[in-house]
From TrEMBL, chain A:
<dbReference type="InterPro" id="IPR019473">
    <property type="entry name" value="TFIID_su8_C"/>
</dbReference>
<dbReference type="GO" id="GO:0046982">
    <property type="term" value="F:protein heterodimerization activity"/>
</dbReference>
<feature type="region of interest" description="Disordered">
    <location>
        <begin position="1"/>
        <end position="22"/>
    </location>
</feature>
<dbReference type="Pfam" id="PF07524">
    <property type="entry name" value="Bromo_TP"/>
</dbReference>
<keyword id="KW-0805">Transcription regulation</keyword>
<feature type="domain" description="Bromodomain associated">
    <location>
        <begin position="23"/>
        <end position="99"/>
    </location>
</feature>
<dbReference type="InterPro" id="IPR037818">
    <property type="entry name" value="TAF8"/>
</dbReference>
<keyword id="KW-0804">Transcription</keyword>
<dbReference type="InterPro" id="IPR006565">
    <property type="entry name" value="BTP"/>
</dbReference>
TrEMBL record, chain B:
<protein>
    <recommendedName>
        <fullName>Transcription initiation factor TFIID subunit 10</fullName>
    </recommendedName>
</protein>
<keyword id="KW-0805">Transcription regulation</keyword>
<dbReference type="GO" id="GO:0016251">
    <property type="term" value="F:RNA polymerase II general transcription initiation factor activity"/>
</dbReference>
<dbReference type="InterPro" id="IPR003923">
    <property type="entry name" value="TAF10"/>
</dbReference>
<comment type="similarity">
    <text>Belongs to the TAF10 family.</text>
</comment>
<dbReference type="GO" id="GO:0006367">
    <property type="term" value="P:transcription initiation at RNA polymerase II promoter"/>
</dbReference>
<dbReference type="GO" id="GO:0000124">
    <property type="term" value="C:SAGA complex"/>
</dbReference>
<keyword id="KW-0539">Nucleus</keyword>
<keyword id="KW-0804">Transcription</keyword>
């Protein structure tokens, strides 16, 4: 039931839309005519709604009259209406108000009261032609028909095609021919290439930021592409840089969730204590310069800090796992923020363009503003 | 016999009157244009090539509209005179006669057309006021 209702609702919408477009012009003409008649009756102004209502009523009156006359003609086994059908229709419509002789059952239609009233009206009322000239409507557009084979004088390509059918379109419209690249170097191509490069760089930075959020700190994987080890490491972390899969392999995307990381860390811990300890030690080692800086933050100026940083720029990547939760929680957020800034400054030292660095800083700052959201990543 | 003849004569008179009337319609140009009437009659299935019948329908419609308009005008004038009666001290302003929905609905009710409209839309400061005082 609901389906039927929905469908009918949709259909109703469609039909109303069509109706409104069909009847705009004749409705407007009717409004003008009605306004002129009311003006002759003595009115000096109209309410819009009242005028529209009256013109709608007039249109319905004409249609009702036509329908009634047509019905009477059909009842008399005719398809074309004549004067008597119209008079009968008029009598039907005027039966509410009444006319002289309405009660007579077998009066001649020619002498009907309605006709007499109309005659009286015509004789009394002044002739008011419509202010505008109305063209013949609705205007029917002639469809340009496709000429047939016979009309063109062509032979249909095939015995099974009769000649009176419309001809086929020109072969140029459906045959695909190779297009020569006449223009050569597209002026926009260079811009497109540049934009693509920018996008790639931004994407990698975003990816980096994501990984930073999940893992803590991620080494600058993009900085020295020459280093093979680094490239491998980068391939592990950045899915877009990984080697393509061979046939039959299935690529499992690494999902960097905190739960999974903790599992990973647990597995690693189970694998070997030494390994974990080594990791732990490496964490401390790598954080050593940062921790030192934090201690001396208050007395040093920013530039001094940067100088210290440049001296202690690490040659080796460091990967910090959140194996020991205590390590992770021991770092307060402000520290993390500062670290991120340092990382971006490190990025800046290595042949990165200034605007890229600024963009990276912006991205990282935005990410660090809401640490809760990062935990959900 | 005499009655029959009388009846026949009357019928002939009627017929002749009708044919004379139809002939006169060719000269008369009704306000409602022929094209419009033809369009709506065609929509309802009316088929007739005779232009006089189209004119007849147009004239009949014009008469209908004129009747409704005159009824509405009477209503409007009655309301205006009622207002003026209450305030005779004020200067008699020559107010414009405006066709309003109220008068129209009263006039159409006699013809059997029920037109009900909202009393007011609460979206303007003048909603709910006497419509005659609202000039549109």
């Amino acid at each position: 039931m609901s389906d039927g209702g929905g469908e009918s609702g949709r259909e109703f919408d469609r039909t109303t839309k069509r109706k409104s477009s069909d009847r705009d012009f004749p409705q407007a003409i009717a409004k003008i005519a009605v306004a002129q008649i009311c003006e002759s009756a003595g009115f000096q102004g109209f309410q819009q709604s009242a005028l529209e209502t009256l013109s709608e009523v007039v249109v319905r009156y004409i249609r009702e009259l036509g329908k009634t006359a047509h019905t009477y003609a059909n009842s008399a086994c005719r398809t074309e209406c004549n004067i008597f059908d119209i008079i009968q229709g008029l009598e039907d419509l005027a039966s509410l108000q009444g006319f002289s002789g309405a009660s007579d059952s077998d009066h001649c239609l020619a002498g009907s009261g309605t006709v007499r009233e109309i005659v009286q009206y015509v004789s009394e009322a002044e002739e008011i032609p419509l202010a505008h000239s109305v063209p013949h409507f609705p205007v029917s557009r002639d469809r340009k028909q496709t000429p047939s084979f016979l009309q063109i004088g062509e032979e249909p390509p095939g015995d099974h095609i009769p000649a009176w059918l419309p001809a086929f379109p020109d072969p140029q419209t459906y045959v695909h021919s190779p297009v020569l690249n006449e223009r050569g170097a597209d002026p926009c191509a260079g811009n497109i290439e540049q934009a693509r490069q920018h996008k790639k760089a931004e994407w990698s930075l975003l990816n980096l930021q994501q990984q930073l959020a999940c893992n803590g700190l991620e080494g600058p994987s993009m900085i020295d592409p020459g280093d093979a080890a680094k490239a491998r490491r980068a391939a592990e972390t950045n899915p877009f840089l990984s080697a393509p899969l061979h046939f039959g392999e299935k690529g499992v995307s690494p999902v960097f969730l905190p739960a999974k990381l903790s599992n990973e860390a647990v597995v690693e811990n189970q694998a070997g204590e030494n390994h974990a300890v080594a990791n732990h030690v490496s964490v401390l080692e790598t954080f050593a310069p940062a921790i030192e800086l934090m201690k001396s933050r208050s007395c040093e100026s920013e530039e001094g800090r940067k100088r210290v940083l440049s001296n202690q720029r690490p040659a080796v990547q460091f990967k910090i796992e959140i194996g020991k939760k205590s390590t992770g929680t021991a770092l307060d957020l402000s520290f993390q923020n500062k670290d991120v800034e340092k990382i971006t400054s490190w990025f800046g030292k290595d042949n990165e363009k200034d605007d890229k660095k600024r963009r990276a800083e912006k991205i990282l700052k935005e990410s660090m503003k809401n640490p809760q959201e990062l935990a959900q990543l | 016999m005499n009655q029959n003849q009388g009846g026949n004569d009357a019928r002939h008179d009627d017929d002749s009157a009708l044919s004379d009337f139809l002939a006169s319609l060719v000269d008369y140009t009704p306000t409602i244009p022929d094209e419009l009437v033809e369009h709506y009659l065609a929509k309802s299935g009316f088929q007739c090539p005779d232009v006089r019948l189209i004119r007849l329908v147009a004239v009949a419609t014009q008469k209908f509209v004129a009747e409704v308009a005159s009824d509405a005008l009477q209503q409007c004038k009655a309301r205006q005179s009622a207002v003026v009666k209450d305030k005779r001290d004020k200067q008699q302003k020559d107010k414009r006669l405006i066709l309003t929905m109220e008068d129209l609905s009263k006039a159409l009710r006699e013809c059997g057309v029920n037109v009900k409209h909202q009393e007011y839309f609460a979206d303007s400061p003048s909603s709910g006021m006497d419509p005659a005082s609202r000039d549109e």
